[in-house]
UDP-N-acetyl-D-mannosamine dehydrogenase (Pseudofulvibacter geojedonensis), 405 residues
Amino acid sequence: MNNKPSVVMVGLGYIGLPTAALIAQNKTYVHGVDINPKVVETINKGQIHIIEPELDNAVAEAVKEGYLKADIKPVEADTYLIVVPTPFKGKNEPDISFVEAATKSVLPLLKEGDLYIIESTSPIGTTEKMMNFIYTERPELKDKLFMAYCPERVLPGNVMYELVYNDRVIGGIDEKSTEKAMAFYKEFIQGDLHKTNARTAEMCKLVENSSRDVQIAFANELSLICDKADVNVWELINLANKHPRVNILQPGCGVGGHCIAVDPYFIVSDYPMESQIIGKAREINNYKSFWCAEKIQTAKLEFELKHGRKPSIALMGLAFKPDIDDLRESPAKYIVQKVLQNVNNEEYYIVEPNIEYHNVFKLTNYQTAVEKADIIVILVGHKEFKKLNLPVNKVVLDFCGINKY
Ligand SMILES: NC(=O)c1ccc[n+]([C@@H]2O[C@H](COP(=O)([O-])OP(=O)(O)OC[C@H]3O[C@@H](n4cnc5c(N)ncnc54)[C@H](O)[C@@H]3O)[C@@H](O)[C@H]2O)c1
């Protein structure tokens, strides 16, 4: 690219690459940076390394027109966006070393008036921490940079649309940083932009997912109580929701995915005494998966006692939620793994209609599995399963309420 990039995007994954492509589509020069040379090579060919509808065209066009270039190193620009992973280390503690490394890589390039934004999901105080780090290393820049945090809340599979139309929360380390970041996002986002400070913006992302986790935990807790109380939890929730101000979510076999099952720990690890409900919700949702695995174990033993032979078992679903192929942090996958630890000559049919091949599990077509199995376990409420006529003469463990009541 001969033109001077305005934006350096550090991290070209599920969030960074679509954002880079969107900014580039807006005819702004973007220098995308990724430490993975394969990612860089793929993007510079105008191709993509992740699955996301419409991203391929956006990247191909942006690269062809010269507005997007990938590299393993950053260059000088006006705006630096940090969109690298924030995984865990040790026991559910957030690891911000990727954010630190990304910040270090742009540190020598920063100059007066530049805008530095973190989008990575981060523990509260991370932007201030990075500000202190930058000003310690580059004291001549003190108070001469604009720094902000702006979390991402897109839904995988609909990223190119939601990036443009979702509302965004933007929090600077000071008022002028917030304003500068607002002006930057206004160029390519049509959703409303909401101003706050960096700490609130960081916490907002964590709270959105914790709120969902807590609400699902309530539904899962009800399912445990109802099992003991001999009450149909699906009917119960349906009836309770007839109240004009009650809206209970549906229980399932746990909570998964890389956001809801993960982000609450960012709060709990820093504020363990104060975040009692948030921490307990994580425990309940994790316990629900363990409980489901135990229920399967019990059903196996009961079948054997009754029929004098080992049962065959269909484990229906591996994804972390219905109708997707994503297995990250999936409770269904955890349950399947746990059940398979106790194999004792039973036949298992593992089903996931949204993926063709799995490197650990041998997959079976869902209709064949239902036909052959003695015990049918619904782990994910996929649309294919909802259409099934589940046989009344077989044991069915429906953890997702596809049959309701
Ligand atoms: N994927 C989502 O749906 C989603 C939604 C909201 C928020 N987030 C958050 O956004 C952040 C990024 O997530 P993602 O899904 O895009 O991650 P990802 O793993 O898909 O991509 C991150 C990329 O950053 C690169 N990288 C790591 N360290 C780097 C460094 N020092 N310099 C340059 N590149 C580096 C990796 O090679 C990788 O390609 C995370 O904090 C995540 O929690 C993700």
Summary: DSSP finds 14 helices and 14 strands in the chain. The chain has two domains: 7-191, 210-398.
